[in-house]
Amino acid sequence: MTQESRFLLACQGKAHDTVPVWFMRQAGRYQESYRALRTRYSMLELARSPRLMRDVTVRPVEELGVDAAILFSDIMVPLTGLGLDFDIQENVGPVVRDPIRTAGQVAQIPPFRSDLVDYVYEGTQLTVEALGPIPLIGFAGAPFTLASYLVEGRPSRTYRATKEMMWNNPAVFQGLLEVLSDMVIEHLRRQAGAGAQALQVFDSWIGAVGQADYQRAVLPHMMRIFGALKDLGIPLIYFGVGTQHLLSAMAATGATVIGVDWRTHLPEVRHTLGAEVVLMGNLDPERVVAGTAAALSGAEEIVKQMAGDPRYIFNLGHGVPKETNPEVLRELVSRVHEWGRLGEGS
Ligand code: CP3
Fold first, then answer.
1. What's the 121 CA to ligand 1 centre distance in angstroms?
2. Which of 51, 70, 281, 282 has its CA 20 to 30 A from that of 246?
C-alpha cells in the first residue's frame, strides 16, 4: 500500500503524521540548478517545454523534501490561449504589449483555446509520472490579478488603470473578468485532467481592493470559478497577499484551502473562519532571507500554535525570494516536520 500524502490528507482534514510543508515559488532563481538552466533558456522557454517544466518542478522536491510540488509555469502562460501577447522581463515581471483599456479590446478577445497551451497539460502529465507519491498542485491566476497585468500593461503599485476601469467602465471590467474566469476554469480543469491532485488560484494583488468592491465586482467571479471546479473532488486553494479584510469573503467562495500572508495571526484567522476551512501559511518570506535563526524562530512559533490542527499546511506568506539560501529552506522543512509531529495525531 502506498503512503497517503500528508498534504492531501491535511486538505481533507484527515489524520496525518505531521504538518505538511511546501513553498510558493519553490522552483526559481534561489536554486543553483535553476540559474544554470536560465543561462540557456528564458523563463517562458522553460514553461513551454513539457520536459524542462517537469525537470524544474521536480527538483525542489528532491532538494528540499517538501510534501507537494507546484507546476512550473506562470499565471500569464494561458493568456496565449486568448490570443494575448506578453513577455516576462527579468526583475520586472509580466509586460503586456497592448494594455487592455477599451470595450472594443475586451470584445475582441476570442474564447479560450486550451489547445494553444497543450504543453502545460503535457508537462503536467509528465510531472505527475515523475513525482510518484508526491502530489502536484496545478494553478492559475485569478481574474483580478490577471486583469491587473492586462490593464496596467506591467506590474503596478496602485492598480490605478484597473480600478478606474472597475469604477468608470464596470460593464467592460465585468466582461474582462468574465472571459478570464472562463479561461481559468478550463485551464484548471485540463490540469486536473492531466493528473494534478490539487489546484491553486493565485489572487496575489487582490488585497489592494476594498471589501465592498471585492464583494460587488470580484466575489461573484470567484464563486463561479470554485463552483465550476467542485465536481473534480480535489482540494482547491485560494491565495492572496494583504487579504485580512477579505478572508471571510474568500472563504465563502467554495475554496477548500485559504492561503494567507505573514501579516495575519493564524489562530485568529482560524477563530474567524471556523474549523472547517483548511489554512495555509504564513512565515514572512523575508525571514528565510534573514537566515536560519530568523526563519526557524518564526516557523517554530507558527507551527506550535497550529500543530494539532488537522487542517493546517505550512508555507511562506508569499513566494520564496530569489536571495534565499536553499540550506535555510532545507533546515526549515525538516524542523517543521519535527515540530509538527508534537501536536499531531493520537
Ligand atoms: O515554484 C513555483 O511557485 C511555480 C512557478 C510559478 C512562477 N510564477 C514561476 C516564475 C508560479 C506559481 C508563478 C505564479 C505567478 N506569476 C504569480 C502568482 C504568485 C505570486 O508570486 O504572487 C504572479 C503574480 C506571477 C507574475 C510574475 N511572473 C512575477 C511577479 C514574476 C517575477 C518577476 C521577477 O523577475 O522578479 C514572474 C516571473 C517568474 N515566474 C519567475 C518564476 C520562477 C522568475 C523568472 C525568471 O526565471 O527570471
1. 18
2. 70
Residue range 124-144, pLDDT digits in tens: 999 999 999 999 999 999 999
Question: Residue 345 above 90 pLDDT?
Answer: no
Q: What is the 3-state secondary structure (H, E, C) of 215-258?
A: HHHHHHHHHHHHHHHHHHCCCEEEECCCCHHHHHHHHCCCCCEE
Here the contacts of 169-174 (C-beta below 8 Å, separation 24 or greater) are: 169/103, 170/217, 171/103, 172/102, 172/103, 172/106, 173/147, 173/217, 174/217
Would you kindly state where each structural domain of the chain is located, as residue ranges?
2-342
Nearest CA to ligand 1 atom 11: 74
Please give the distance, rounded to the nearest whole angstrom, from the Cα atom of residue 74 to the centre of ligand 1: 6
As separate numbers, helices (DSSP H) first and strands (DSSP E) second, the chain gives 16, 9
pLDDT tens digits along 38-71: 999 999 999 999 999 999 999 999 999 999 999 9
Please tell me the residue having the least CA distance from ligand 1 atom 45.
43
25 is catalytic: yes
Specify the ligand 1 atom closest to the Cα of 29.
Answer: 47
Q: Indicate the pLDDT class of residue 1, thresholds 50, 70 and 90.
A: very low
Is the domain spanning 2-342 CATH 3.20.20.210? The answer is: yes
- Backbone φ and ψ for 143, nearest 5 degrees, come out as -55, -40
CA distance 237 to 311: 13
Residues framing ligand 1 (Cβ under 6 A): 24-29, 38, 43, 70, 72, 74-75, 88, 90-91, 93-94, 139, 202, 204, 319
